[in-house]
Amino acid sequence: MKNPLKKISFLFVAFLITCNSNAQVNSDYDKNTDFTKYKTVSFGGWEKESDKILNDFDKKRITDALTNEFNSRGINLVESNGDATITLYLVIQTKSNITAYTNFNGGLGYTGRWGYGRGFYGGMGSATTSLSENDYRVGTLVIDMYDTAEKKLIWQGDMTTDVQEKSQKREKTIPKNIGKLMKKFPIAPLKK
Predict the structure, then answer these.
(1) Beta-sheet pairing, 152-162 with 24-29
(2) Which of 115, 132, 168, 189 can bridge 72 by disulfide, Cβ–Cβ 3.0-4.6 Å?
(3) How far from 156 is each of 30, 128, 159, CA to CA, in Å?
């Protein structure tokens, strides 16, 4: 990866899909929609900019995790013309974390003089503060579900997490975090 832009794109993708287990998830849906009528869902694709951020491996991890979650709810993925359509959008932000460390050195000593003044005394203390700044990437994955016939948004879920750089971690955390997000979907998984 000699091209720095490719490396940045890879890190973005890694971040998005890495989604650590501390992912924050939110969802909202149309309360008047009967979600039991949706038996099929088709994948409408990634928003243009998101498509450039993710690599094919992470895209597959996300879509596979979503497919498994929808299948567990009795909703099957079809190539096109599903009862509902899913679109995905990714946003990556760089944030900073500043930490301050203070070391205090108190002055305490012993004086031994002739006559008066023997004993301990308090001297001047000193304190030093060190600041440490860490930059990190935070990614937000937004999943929109539309009624295909009415072209109306019926459900939206979003997940925000720190970007993970190691593919082994992303491989484990993506399905876990998609599962965490889908717990907020209006239909629970079918009991086996």
Answers:
(1) antiparallel
(2) 189
(3) 9, 49, 10
The closest of 85, 55, 60 to 156, measured between CA atoms, is 85
Structure-token pair, residue 91: 């946003």
Angle of helix 4-18 relative to helix 56-71, nearest 10 degrees? 20
What pLDDT does residue 12 have? 47
CATH 3.30.160.670 domain residues, the chain: 4-97+135-182
| Ranges of residues in the chain whose predicted pLDDT is under 70 | 1-21, 106-125
CATH fold of 4-97+135-182: Double Stranded RNA Binding Domain (3.30.160)
Query: Residue holding tokens 């013309």?
Result: 81
Looking at the DSSP assignment, which residues form a beta bridge with residue 86? 43, 145
pTM score of the predicted model: 0.70
Rounded Cα distance between 27 and 173, Å, is: 19
